[in-house]
Amino acid sequence: MVEPRFYTRVKSETDAPARTARWWWYFPVILAVVFALWQVRLAQRYGLTPSKGGAFGLFSTVDKLENRNLRAYLLTKTQEIPFAIPQTVPSTEELRKPIYRAASLPIEAYLQALTDELVKKPFTVPFTGIRVETWKMDFDSATLRASRIKVASRTVDANGHKQP
Length: 164
What we know:
Strand content: 15-25%
Order of helices and strands: HHEEHHHEE
Strand order of the largest sheet: 2-1-3-4
Oligomer: single chain
Shape: elongated
Number of strands: 4
């Protein structure tokens, strides 16, 4: 039978590279924390759905892409006519990406891309402008009721210029 040997390790100058290389072990953790903080910032400041961008808030809220919707209105001189974007507008293939982006992260650039595409489409009603709104679902834990909250909107005239 072999007896176990107990060695005492003597620290030397050659151990320095091994100790300094250990910070790389923490790199994935640091990267995940930075990524999670970035997603929290996008979710709180710009309205990103918590289930997108890494899914750190996937089960923490009812605010998912499936619970968001876009409302679009044709503006005439006398009224606002609501219309469903995918069903009403012909050839929605080029609208698929702007719709997805405007719903999941409703920043000004994505809403502008969507309204620019919608202004180019032919409508049977003469219109003076288009308004697109992104709505999300919110759940009030005190009253146990779900409600819709407008996250962002953009209104453009018939030429695609932004209106207040």
